[in-house]
Amino acid sequence: MAGPRILVIQLKRIGDLILTAPMLARLREEVPDARICLAVCDAAGFLAPCIPGVDEVFHFQRGRINLGYWSGVFANRPFDIAFDCDGTDRSAFTALLSGAPVRVAYAKHRKGFPREDIFTHGCGASLKEYHTIDHVAALLDTVGIGGTTPPLRLIVPESGVAAATALNLPPKYAVVHPGSARIEKFWPAERWAVLIDHIASVSGLPVVVTGGPWEVEARHLAEIARLSRQGFINLAGNTSVATMAAVLSRAALAVTVDTAALHLAAAFGVPQVALFGPTNPFRWRPRHERAWIVQAGKPSPLRADQPFPKPDDFAPMEEISVEAVIDAVERLRQPETSNF
């Protein structure tokens, strides 16, 4: 007899999809004979090959009719369970279209008509009390799928490995990812330049800069390049998500803002420093032992794998000093944590 058919709907950004991977891994471990399908959105779809344990992927693209997406979900129905990790109208309709008799959403997304009729179960996990990985995995608890949520892990598809190899990067390098889709996460260009020069001169590692094609981000990187004395290898806007994953997986060090690159580095256990300003490190930080958090308004970096305070206030990125970030980088260069 065939195993259950399970649909996981995650139509948010790349970072959200990355942090859904542990839930999918737990689902695969606890229900090994399941056929697991994943619904993703926009550029996040290019990350799907990096997530192990998924049998089929449905791609939604904003601003399009998405006949392929809707017909793909419909053709695979009826599912036995549908998990809505998103909470939008399109994800609710996807859950309904799945034909699953068990449809799970967060309790706050189940309120009101027609959602109270669409979803059969509501997960009471609060965003304020959970890291995002655990918040997503709590959907499994709602329907009695137990087990332990594994650490975040991704794989690099062969296409990403080949594309990264073709870049002919140095054998060892540091990755810096200054950009984001949200301009309030930008750290001042002159501080990035000082940091890049420090990494290159003190550690001897060439610096590779990754990023997206957004024009505002490109201008930010151009200013960093103008101010940096050491210079860097600029890959921003020229790599796919899978290629960027491959580049990050090989890095000796990664320094990023709170964006998808942070979570990619965490998924490969890369020694990393993550800069947080207007976003919540309690919910979004990496959690492995070689990660340090620098939070705006805090004088010293914090170990990411230790019990972490729930911040009750946030500060702009300008309140992160370059000295605090360099301090975190130097802590990673200690023999017990360093691979560079």
Radius of gyration, in angstroms, nearest whole number = 21 Å
Number of helices: 13
Shape: globular
What does the average pLDDT come to? Answer: 95
What is the CATH C-level name of the largest domain? Alpha Beta
Determine the CATH topology of the largest domain: Rossmann fold
CATH superfamily of the largest domain: Glycogen Phosphorylase B
Beta-strand proportion: 15-25%
Quaternary structure state of the chains depicted? single chain
Q: How can the largest sheet be summarized?
A: 7 strands, mixed
The succession of helices and strands, N to C, reads EHHEEHEHEHEHHEHEHEHEHEHEEH
> Low-confidence runs (pLDDT<50, min 5 residues)?
none
User: How are the strands of the biggest sheet laid out side by side?
Assistant: 9-8-7-10-11-12-13
By DSSP, the count of extended strands is 13
Terminal CA distance: 51 Å
Name the CATH architecture of the largest domain.
3-Layer(aba) Sandwich
Number of domains: 2
User: Structural class of the secondary structure composition?
Assistant: alpha/beta
> Percent of residues in helical segments?
25-40%
